[in-house]
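Go through this:
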Amino acid sequence: MKMGIIGLGLIGGSMAIDLKRRGFAGEIIGAEADAVNAAAALKIGLVDRVAEIEECVRESELVILAVPVGAAVRMLPMVLDRFAELGDTSKTVIDVCSTKEQLARAVKYHPCRRQYVASHPMAGTEYSGPWAAMPGLFDAHACIICDSEESAPKAVRIVENLYEALN
């Protein structure tokens, strides 16, 4: 599977490590607003390549928003808009934010809402940035998939498989 990860800090970077090592992702395209973090993520091998958000979304089957909630609230509708422009109903987007109310409101009536799966992995540390990414961060930790009835069953299965790969 070709994956895009927007936000290459602790959570996004840790997901990238394990999803690639465990065979879930064939290629990982990273998008990161901070040029230093983007260069570091590429140099230390968290991603196969770095691209602009548009390219990341266009080329990925699964997009992970691993950014703070405020940024995710702005980005999620844009990602779904891009899915609509592409006419691609096979793409899925997830977020890994800790709160969901603002995200749910932002896309409640979006025509591609069913391609979004809200999730909250219960893992993390006090560190940040791509240098904080670590293998096994999600092992033996719970994850909550929120409002799954609002998402397409196929999208939910993809996300369940993702979290199974993360143990």
